[in-house]
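Task: fold both queries, return tokens.
Query 1:
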Amino acid sequence: MHIPDGYLSPETCAVLAAGSAPILYVAARRLAREADTAVVPRVAMASAFGFVVQMLNVPVPDGTSAHAVGAALAAILLGPWGAMLALTVTLVIQALFFGDGGILALGANIFNMGVIAPLTAYVIYRSLGGPSPGRRAFGAVAAGFLSINAAALATGIELGLQPLLFRAADGTPLYNPYPLELAVPAMMFAHLLVAGPVEGLITGLVVTYIQRVQPDLLARHTPAAGSRVWVPLALVVGILVILTPLGLIAGGTPFGEWAPEELAQLVGYVPPGLVELSGRWSGILPGYTVPFLAGIPGGEVIGYVLSAFTGIALVTLAWLILRQLLARPRVRP
């Protein structure tokens, strides 16, 4: 679901970035006002969870792949504002350091996975989750399934609108070549059938686990609920890191994330706008690989795990910096 550069027009990217910016500004203000710096370790751990769970790609029957997002769990534990910021930090680090998602398309990816997904998850969980363990587990599963599909629907619409709105002089699509009638069903097929159930299952299992070890975290839907949320989440993240090599098994490229040469094999040409915008930045560890491990037996697996640890470290560092910013004394007029 990480849209690379070149699949969306600069105009589309600008609109989605402009739509995300004020929401994230409000989220930051709300987070600072409601919880100050006490929430930062919890948000950091939710960011780390999102980073690692997104590395667990799963195969889709059409030959592509998909992955969970982690937005639902973040929304359940942190509320919508903390979840939005947690996912945003994850997406920024993925784009800058690993080339997962485009730099120009970052605002679009934040809008889809960092705004729509956690907001949908929060609304669903508040509507369906109840005081009993069974209701909470059900609400968590539903929130996970529906939130990732809401994000997938938005992504499919954004991609599918490109051939309608932006065409080259010869009439061919300038950016993403797949129209709405193909882009939306393809995105929904992968997420209704595979990624949605995975997201729901993971969210439900983690919420069930937290109910057993620290149920007070689920008693209130505010970022300040519970002071040790990072402890159970750290265990979950650790388990996911061990499992990250499973993400290499999927093989297929997610829909709408093909490199230009792959797209040329699929449709017979590469849109000129996509050629112009794609490939400008591939990250320091492109595709969660470590260049000096290339060619070494097991190097791909080792590099993938090292990338997971690197991502967690970068997420933690980012939130430590943000913690210092939040800790600055407020000047009252």
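Query 1 returned. Query 2:
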Amino acid sequence: MAMISISRGTFSGGKTLAERVAERLGYPCLGREEVLLEAGKDYGVSERELTEAVNQPPPFWQQVPGRRVAYLMCLTATLLKQAQAGNLVYHGHAGHFLLAGISHVLRVRVIADMEYRIKAAMERMNIKRDEAIVYIDRVDKERIKWSRFLYGIEWGDPSQYDAVLNLERMSMEGASLAIASMAQLDDFKVTTQSQKATEDLKVTSGVWAALVKDERTRAASVQVVAKNGVVTVTGKAAAGKVVDAIPAVAAQVSGVKEVRNEVGIGSDWYW
């Protein structure tokens, strides 16, 4: 029993592969676009804001990641809600970041030859070859900047994944079989420790998302960490009433046993 995250470059075939894997294993399949839509409904954040958080590097004047991290936590909360049974195939370039720290997540990177991607873009978007090249190049560069900014790592670094599959050299059938087989390995089975990590991340992301959703606390620039149901919130807020509202908002999230509010009053200009 594993969660599978398939990170895909633009027009690399990852969506089709994820659907094949999900069908083979009988797992639910969820894409980035569906998660964005669901998270927007759940937490009152516009799809545009969530899309920017998960796709685009920040402008040069906004070099503190507070808001973007908070929005990404909304996506994590949505993903974990969908994976309550423990089985899920997710396709989207940020999955291995959103589910970091959970050992029973199988992290797969799908790549394809540039020519493969160009042809796919031309067919799906009904654009010319030179337009497809420009589009793919732009999206790739944005994702590289995004992962460097938020996580300080390279998006395409193979060490971030458990497997890297080249769909130019493997058939969809072969690739889906390989992933399905890996998912059955003991290495990706749920353990007591990995379940605990999942619960901690679920509470962490749930509280963070709740603070984003509530009008009283939405502007606070905070960090949230949960361990065994004990939630610690640190950071800054512009007013005392915002600080005072944080424990009540956090306590409403399932799994929260105690809230330690260490938020101070100060500038939240970067939010």
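Both queries returned. Flag for query 2: The chain has two domains: 3-188, 214-265.
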